[in-house]
Amino acid sequence: MGVILDIRGLKVFYGIHEAVCGVDMEINEGEITAVIGSNGAGKTTIINAISGMVPRQGEIRYSGAPLPAQANRVVRQGVVQVPEGRKIFAGLTVEENLTAGAYTVKNRKEIERLLQEQYEMFPRLKERRRQDAGTLSGGEQQMLAICRGLMAKPKVLMLDEPSLGLAPVVVNEVFHNIQRICQEGITVILVEQNAKKSLSICDRAYVIETGRVVISGTGGEMLENPEVASAYLGTARDQ
Q: What is the pTM of this model?
């Protein structure tokens, strides 16, 4: 296993404001890479740039080849983002939400297989598959959002604040399931403010401040780093 995403000199501008300032990152295949930092640091903008959701400068190579800049082509390449705030489709059933995530999959039998995979991973979604997704609990909606992303058959799954607004016991379940997804062979990029939880499960981590990488290392190294501990671990949720 090697580098699946190689990011060099990534820049993103909002008008004249430089939100991401020449970021270099290496995302290793089959690992969880955490991206931590305070609100407004540029974490979400980085994955939005990878996804093709915002214009970018610099180079992103995916499995050695340039990653397209168009969002639909990025998804078809196997790089899928689960956005902050879940953004499930209220008014549609759980199963309709999941099927919507498989819009790049044309084979009906393959869609059925993918649905069964999600139901095996999250039995509660199977129990509620005919239920309006808008009536699910926050934790169930987050599971649904993750599974909807998995329906696109990603090789790289980018999760933006998956624990936001969830009770501590549900947060533990979400992080456990992120580990399970990685164990299935899917590379995970985890953007989180809950630094302690993120660092405890990731293989590698990057700290972002004002659009720049200021510290990087393994999860274990970051947990022991006094600068990281002082800035992020003392105030992370669910200590």
A: 0.93
